[in-house]
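Sequence dictates fold. Next comes a concrete instance:
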Amino acid sequence: VPDHRGEGDSAREQLKIREFTFDHSFWSLDEDDSNFASQEKVFAALGEDVVSSAFDGYNVCIFAYGQTGSGKTHTMMGYEDDPGLIPRFCNALFCRLHDNSSASYQIHVSYLEIYNEKVRDLLRGSSLDSNKSVHNLRVREHPRDGPYVQDLSKHSVISYEAIANLMNKGNANRTTAATNMNDVSSRSHAIFTIIFTQARFLDGVPSERQSKINLVDLAGSERADASGATGQRLKEGGSINKSLVSLGNVISLLAERSENGTKGRHAFIPYRDSVLTWLLKDSLGGNAKTVMIATISPADVNYGETLSTLRYANRAKNIINRPTVNEDANVKLIRELREEIARLRSLLEGNVDTSPRVQEKLHENEARVKVLTEEWAEKWNESASLMREKSLALRHEGVGVVLDSTLPHLIGISDDLLSTGVMLFHLKEGITKIGSDESDEPQDITISGANVEPEHCVIEHKDGVVVLHPIEGSLCAINGQVVKEPTRLTQGMLITLGQTNVYRYNNPEEAREMKKSMQVRKSVSALSLPQGEHNSMISPRLSLLSQSMSDLYRSNESLALNGSLMDISSTTYREDQEELEHKRLEIMDLENRYTEREKERQAEEEQIKEELENYMEKLRHLNEEIEYVRSKKNPYNSIVDGLRQLDRQEEELLEDLRISKENLLEEIENLTWFPDQVTEEESISQVIHDLERQITEKNEQIQQVRRASTSSRLQLEDKEKSLQEKVATEVEKLETLKSQYEMEKKDLLASSENILHEVQDLALREEDLLAQHEVASEEKNAQWKVVLDELNEHTSRIEEAWHDLGENEARVKRKMQKGSFSSVQEKLECEAETQQLAEARKLLEEEEKNFAERQQEEVARIESELEVWERQKAAEIEALHLARRELLWQNSDKLRQLDEQIEEQKQVLVNAKDEVMQVNQEKAAVIKEFQKQIDALKEENSVLTGELEEMEKRTEEKESRRKDKIVELEVEIETLEHTYNLNLEEIQNERMRLVGLQEEVLRKSSLEDSGEQNRLFNVSQQLKAQREDLDTRQKDLESLQKELEAKTSELESRQVKFDEERETQLDKIEYEKFRLLDMERQDRVNSLVEQEVKCRLFEEKLERERLRKLEREKDKQEREKEIQRLKSLHQREINQLKAKLEMSNNRALASGNRVTRSQSCEMITSTDQRKNLIRQLTFAEPPAVLNIEVPTFVLRGSGRDLHYEYLIKVTIGDESWCIFRRYSRFREMHNALKKKYPVINQLVFPPRRFFHKNKKVAAERRTLLE
């Protein structure tokens, strides 16, 4: 800001005011300031919502943007005493997980940096040379999951301490350097990614949500003149600014797309212009909740960077993302299937005879839910086991599992070849007793073996200090030395108890302190001995070899001791000694060879250093010679050249100023005035007026549709009410007819004994038929169950074969990938085994296909047999019902009329109910149609309202942008003029200095004599020739340099093209592989579901059969009750008739003397008739003539139910009855009579399987049965 301002300066200052929109603003410069915002306050405002969104299943992203040194890394990472957003977020995440113990969870962490547009894994182990970090990870894009980094390590964590260790490890590996703006400037972008998965059962339904949290620490934007970057720092700054420019372009295009909404074609978003935007594709414009933190500097010298950062953030705020909850596809499918199951069950409404298609769909969905739920539960078994072992802090490290324990502990070292477990004993605060199981007191750690005492020793742990107290008479050794006194244990000690129990002592706290001290010593040695780096690399290797030798010697001694004490044979001991000696010689040979090669490498390195020093010395001499030649040149020519150069610079500067100013003024003129402005404003106002008119019309249409909907609904409700009244009337009529029918039926049965007997006979026939049906049904169900059991057993055998085949294929695949074959024969055997497994897979697939076809055929056959059987049973029972109805109709026309009236009334009632249902459907359709019209009108209305608001908003924003652009252009013009004046002033000063030097040179040259001038001329000619020679060499070097750069760029472009093509092919291969695996898995699931559905359908059929059986039993009981009632009524009538007959007989005897012979005969005849009637009614004594015949037999049924039935003709007096009975009924009667009358001769009844189809046997048995 200038010290003295003119009249226009105040107005120009007001034009520099900018307005930006933000959600939060924090001042974190001075802690003593009352407005100071701490890290805790920043996290409370930003981080709490992010944690909640992560638990709700959303993807979230936080990234900080700003110039270098403005506090991005401080905000995101912080330091140990004042952590930033990322550590606080992780801590809050685990705190909430600790409070919510009902869910299982998995957390995977990755940490990468983008350095010079190359990706590096910060959590991967460092290479041997820490100064040569490798950035070789490739970014690829999955068709469904989006961009990802190939081979990026993912670490599973279950505690905040584990994730904090990973953060510290990654931060230590980050690339930082010192610049003029910041002592520890981040030279790369860092992305800390957390994959948070949580699973639980909610009301018996699995729920799984996954959140991807990207916590991004961007490198700061910088300018080379301000940061003073040169060389490598300048290259890094260029890569940083390139990626940030790409990020700005992406944000601008996303903001424009969000402003334009769904109108027009969407602009292409160049995500792949940089690695940063490619990896943040979902976070910027996809499925994520994103928070951007803009860090700015309060210094006035950073005004331009601050303004750029705020514009950046303002554009980012205009982006509209639509995040959704990330739910597992299988879990979502399970939920949808359960909803479908609930809908299908509501359709069934408890009716077992519902359409089989609906039931089949229901069982299919239930089976699919069962299979998917089991797969989901199996997937989470590993997570549950990790949660159970939280005290040991199990974590995956590559293909291994690391046990992190915070307590001191002992790890058992066993020589048992059959031992496969890891023994770990925690040493908690207090006393830990160690002894054998023979001790009277229980021991905390039980050991066994030679020289083990019942109470062997005690380990005391107090305030972090662990001391071993041997008990007198026990054998205890530490690092091979026998101890008798209390000894303090330190990290890594080997403890031997007795002769065979060896343990390693670990103290995590002590190990951590030792690691820190070793790092400090390493850093100090690296600073004090920079030339001994290679020696420092050699010493660990030599110490490792020496340690291996020591371990071998210790193992040798241990084996010797154990061998002598455990009676190992001398031959085995000698072989072990020879093998150990052989290995020792091999290690010594390797150590000597390594030392010789290291000496040769050092000699070659010294030689290369000497050659390099010689070349540097030659280059220094050449530079000195060039400088000497340049100093001997005539200064007058250089002065003239400098003046000419200044003139050219002044002209170029003036021309640039003129062109830039003209362009800016022209742009301002275009912004301030254009001829179509009035026309555009009129068209916009006309459009707004049309939109308002359309909105009003839509509202009127909505009201009209609502009125019409209300009127139609009322009419249909009135119609429905009248139909309901009609249905009620028809129901009353039907009930009246039924009651009349029952009364008439009772009267008929009471008046006619023959009809009663025939009805009873029909009832008995129905009972027999139902009993036969039950027996046949049980036999058929047993047969079908055998077939289905065989199918299920075959299915299980196929599943076991698939499982065995998968295990063998995995074993052979691991062996082929490992490639460690001892011989060519073994490799050939492995390849042959691979071919055999492939053939076995083909055979198993063919067997599975054939079995599936056979299974379908069997199920279809069983279903057809079941359907035929059901139809046959229904037809037979219906025939009996029809016979009963015909019997009643033959004896009563009134019953026939009532029955016909009942059927007509039922049909009328069904028609009335159909009309009611049709009215309800019509009402629902009308309501749905009107609601659809209302929704469509509302949607059109909302669209018009949105267009109206969008039009007004775009008009305002366009005007605001135009004004801002004019102000920016005016400021830019002032900046150009100011820069031009400064440059012009510098040029004038340089011109004055050169003119003074020129006058001085001319004055000195006039004083020299002509001989000196000739000598100078000769020297100048020589110098000119040398200069031409140097210029030629320089041009050659420049051409070679350009050629080298061209070749390098061509090679890089070819490499990039090749990498892109290879990545494309790999993506295609991976996608096809994923698709094939998915299809195979889907086929397996479909086959399992199909089998489950078939089993469910069969079980459902069996259940329906059982329910029908229960219904038949219930009907049978009701019929028996009815028959008993009729029998009791019949008996009462008989008793009344007996009483009347006895009274008549008494009266006849009293007046016997007064009657004539004819009257006596009439009385005797009447008495005989009454006696015969009594005998027929009571069956108290057998009739005079009784004849039973079995004249013939008939073949009934079909298939397995094929059987013979005998016609039995019973004659009593003048009346006869004919009934059909099966062979089994004769056998039951015969067995019952044998028990009651032992004198009856026994008949030999052949078995049913032989009898029921043999006509000859049936004919022979007819006479015997008679």
